[in-house]
Amino acid sequence: MIRRREFCTGLAALSGFLTASCGWKLGDVRASSQEASALDELHLYTWTQYTDTQLLKTFSAQTGIKVLADVYDANEVMLAKLQASGGGTYSLIYPSDYMVQKMVDKELLKQLNQKRLVGLDNLFPRFENPEYDQNNMYSVPMSWGTTGFIYNSEKLEKPPSDWDYLWQNQKKLSKRITLLNDAREVMGGVLKMLGYSYNSQNEKQIKEAYQKLQDLKYDIAAFSTDAWRNQIMSGDLVLAMCYSSDAYKLTRENAKLKYITPKSGSSLWTDTIAIPTTTSNIEAAYEWINFMLKPDVAARMSKRLGVATPNRAGFELLPKKIQNNPTLFPSEEILEKCERLSPVGKFTEVYDRYWTQLTSS
């Protein structure tokens, strides 16, 4: 399951490389880790958008620790590299919520010493004891978001509010909509519409969701996680299923584009910071986590990245315009209906079977 949550695609392999789609400049980005790790160096393995030159310089000035970063664009890429290299020399990694569960099961993450963390009490209650990592024993949440629809408000007479909008307006939307190229997200959204769990392990329910998607299939322009961006900006699409972080960037660029989280509920995702069991510098790792937990750092990351911060103290430092933006911060009423994607073990085969039938027939 490759999660969106690749804000950018492609591996930045050069120092100071400017990622075109995110607009973030990475400092000291390396193509691969060095085997040796000095005590005054922090080795990060992170998503492309989560570090920039200014952030790294600020941390280094405060701690005297130099930061070296490798980047990835999918959780599975990160996991595969760590398993292939025996953990490499990384001090810290950035797994998403469901990947934290997988890595704990594989004994790849070090249990955190809570006494060494400063700022955990800054988190919103929702993130203090998440179901994917009870009491944040192995990870610290850094950003979060939802899955929903971005749409062209000038071309849709009636804006979408829930998943069933696609079926109610099927002919009007024909060949001008895209859904994510992600079995769990797409099937999950339909399951939610039908009144089931996003993480259903009932094959009868999965089949019902599949049949609903079959009814819609020939009016879907594509299953796309990335290509929809240019198409909706140009007007070729009027609606696309996407992640809130991606939508936030585009809605700031084009006022006619709007985003909604389906009112019946959707997926709620979180990206975290964790320490691999093979950490190269545990002292620097805790320094970095505590730095990222600072309210002013959390607020700056939220503003510049366009992601919601789980840091309550950081949230309070954000401008009211951002605090009240429903793309980043949906209402509690909607969030209470959202679910996190959870690993479903061998039942993944059922999702994959129906997804293959849907996308290949």
Automatic annotation (TrEMBL):
BP-aspect Gene Ontology terms: polyamine transport; transmembrane transport
PROSITE patterns per record: PROKAR_LIPOPROTEIN, SBP_BACTERIAL_1
UniProtKB keywords: Periplasm, Signal, Transport
Transmembrane annotation, as ranges: none
CDD domains reported for this sequence: PBP2_PotD_PotF_like
Family label: Belongs to the bacterial solute-binding protein 1 family.
The protein's name in its UniProt record: Polyamine ABC transporter, polyamine-binding protein
